[in-house]
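=== How it folds ===
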Amino acid sequence: MVEDERTPSPGEMLRVIEEQSAATTRWIYGDPLLLYVPWGVAWALGFTALFLRYGLDGHPYAPISQMQAVGVLMASQLVAGGLTAFGFVRMNMVVRGDSKARGTMFGYAWFAAFALMTVLCTRIGPHLPEEERGLLWAGASLMLVAALQMAGGAVFLIWPMFFFGVYIGAVNALGVLLGAGWHALLTAVLLGGGFIAVGVVLRLRS
């Protein structure tokens, strides 16, 4: 018998089955690397820029303006949003029935929530000092992310997603209480790093 035509061993067959199962899971439930890591990188970059702008004692640590720091955050989030949207579109291509309907409504809920938040912050922000205005936008954004993560965990019965939403909410609340500089630092390290870690761990576990 030619070596290339030999019958695969049970171990090799099991490995192939596991690899195909993991690939199918990523197609159906989304690739964690696309759903989490881009946002982790975006928050790490953007909120680090804001941290350098604010500092912890009210004095900037780098010669960067508010608009430049926000520009870094917005640009990185646009890239992250595009990658995440690609992951959701690819996921919905193979999902049908109630699961697809829940996923679609959940996606629209993100859009509607952030649209409303933009209206509120645009109306209230101009009445606040620069740092407090930035804290309003950042705190409100992360509050929505936390709430929607918990809602997503409840809708799709994914406990890790729910508890990660609780974690985001706790870090956000602590940062808001401590002030703009601390909020930016905690978000960059604990949430930016946390999203990257969750994406990598979930991908390895899949």
About this structure: The helical segments are 10-29, 32-35, 37-54, 66-92, 97-124, 130-156, 159-178, 180-205. The two ends are 36 Å apart (CA to CA). DSSP finds eight helices and no strands in the chain.
